[in-house]
Amino acid sequence: MFYHRYVREGAYVPWAKRFGEACEVPDFHTADKRYLTEIVDSLGSRLKPVKALALSGIGVVVFGAALILMIRRRQKLISTSKS
Questions:
Q1: Using CA atoms, how far apart are residues 12 and 6, in angstroms rounded to an integer?
Q2: What is the tens place of the pLDDT at every residue in 4-19?
Q3: Which of 23, 5, 24 is nearest to 14 (CA)?
């Protein structure tokens, strides 16, 4: 886009006469937050294709942990009732 404009209008363009003279004051506090949100958003978009698989894996792990805890608890109850 900029290249085509450069080829069409040449090196000098009328809008460049006062370029950089009327800039807003930078808001570094907001820019710092934006940096973090951009990282989180890009990570989320990269993980989106495997989101269902990851959630399924987490579900299996949680279910397995709960099952192991239930089995241990039952075995503990059986061994204490025999005593």
A1: 8
A2: 877 787 777 677 777 7
A3: 5
Is the C-alpha dihedral spanning 9, 12, 3, 25 positive or negative? negative
Q: Which parts of the chain are beta strand (E)?
A: none
Question: How many residues are recorded in the chain?
Answer: 83
> What is the rounded distance in angstroms from the CA atom of residue 55 to the CA atom of residue 60?
9
Q: How far apart are CA 11 and CA 2, in angstroms?
A: 11
pTM: 0.43
pLDDT in tens, 32-56: 778 788 888 888 888 888 888 888 9
Closest CA to 73 of 62, 81, 61: 81
Cβ 54 vs Cβ 47: under 8 Å = yes
Radius of gyration of the chain (CA): 30
